[in-house]
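Task: fold both queries, return tokens.
Query 1:
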Amino acid sequence: MAKKILVLGGAHIDRRGRIFGETAPGSSNPGAWFEEPGGGGFNAARNLARLGFDVRMISPRGGDALGEAVGEAARQAGVDDRPFVFLDRKTPSYTAILENDGNLVIALADMELYRLFGPRRLAIRSVRDAFKEADLILCDANLPTETLKAIASRAGESGKPLAAIAISPAKVVRLNACLGTIDYLFLNEAEAATLIEERPEHALQWVDRLRALGLRGGVITRGQRAVVAFSESEIVSLQPPTVEDIADVTGAGDSLAAGVLSGLIAGLNLAEALRHGVAAAAITVQSPFATAENLSPNLLKTMLALVPKAEMLS
């Protein structure tokens, strides 16, 4: 029987506009527009479902066409979608304008609806049952601080491992109050630097600082440099392989989280689970979408052949 994973977090619409030529501030720029369902938790949920897990997604949703599009994307990926629908509200969205080389010009995050996902929602019987049935809980920092604390508390009471996705430097601070209850936090250097209020030179220093905050384990992505992962007892690093034909890096971190968690929940050690995460990310960046629609256990196994072994740092 497939392991059950409960995901609570962002499930919204991502819009990306790319400028064709040189950016001309303050004027009209020729370009192209692309729109798809996204959100850290939702991307991870779809990846985990495609890897064969029984995934349930709980998030707030508006009663609009965008909400229906998110629900349809969940269905196509095999996610058991259980949203809280607010009929008179808009589904959250993230809108980004990118330069021709992919660098961000400006973005607007319309995420007010997530504030309505308060801690009391966790007291609903169906949600309580979902916590009891799950083998792993995954949340993301799109949710309010109080809700994240309540999720951590409920996961602890249920005796279930808890993982979290940082989302952004501005949002990762919402996890401060529950860092000591998170088994694995997925974050990049900018998000880690926000938590520890500095940028150490060496990988081991990043881990030391995060452990000092009470974090049990985590995975830190560092651009083209080696990914660092740690648990309470070990630290490993892995240099991602060079990927040809990169289509879009959107969602790479979420797929890495899904890959690592898929390995851990299957009983792999941290080093091997990290290889699964890097392989999943490599598959995703070759797709024009935030999640690779062709992701599967077999494709992941094929990509693993190109991923080097992780190095033990402690």
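Query 1 returned. Query 2:
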Amino acid sequence: MVAVVEQETVPVTGTGAGARIDIRNVSHDFGDAGQRLAVLDGVNLSVAPGEFVALLGPSGCGKSTLLRLVAGLDAPTSGQILQDGTPITEPDPSRIVVFQDPTLYPWRRVRDNVALGLQARGMARRERHRVDDALRRVGLESFERAFPHQLSGGMAQRVALARALVNDPRLLVLDEPLGKLDSLTRLAMQSELVDLWRRARFSALLVTHDVEEALFLAQRVIVFSQRPARIQAELHVDLPYPRHRGDPRLTALRHEALRHLGLDASW
């Protein structure tokens, strides 16, 4: 996939296709009345329309739980999450989750996997062009007849992204979507994900354990504490796209992120 080469900075506000998300004093816990496990503690965060925000934090601190709440898969114990001013109470096609595992149906060809959401809504026949467009955007139009077992890991994750994009989401919720890829494929997919976001203008909320990935992709990086997760730092990555991994400003931000995570002693 050809990367966009302009050097402008994508604005964090505006009137693009992306949704505005407001997380207001959200706390969440698991368990019953006899034994509760606090996972999130008073989280306040907003995502502007068209903004790319990454969440960093220790493993198990509650980042993925927050994504599930934003997606409407679960309801917070307390607090409120809104999309464009309306409370999120259930899943909605405007918010699409992409997980670490592509979760493709092995008996369905690439095209049918991508069209799944449209088929479920009875729109597949009249919206065939949207499947064509989604496949083209991820560079897989030549593989529409392939089965998942015939694809590489990176190609399978591209199918998962196309399946999300075909619904024209206003928010893409990304839960470690590149976590199972080999290092070289992961680097290539990071650039492709940025390219997709810049062209489609959706809002993006990413969970990752990779500090460099967060800084390469996002406009803001939110650093969480140990569980129960609280926001302990917010890093603004005020760098133009496409970004260069050797940029000394990224190196400085990486050191700052690692300091907040307590991992900077060896850097």
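Both queries returned. Flag for query 2: The chain has a mean pLDDT of 88.
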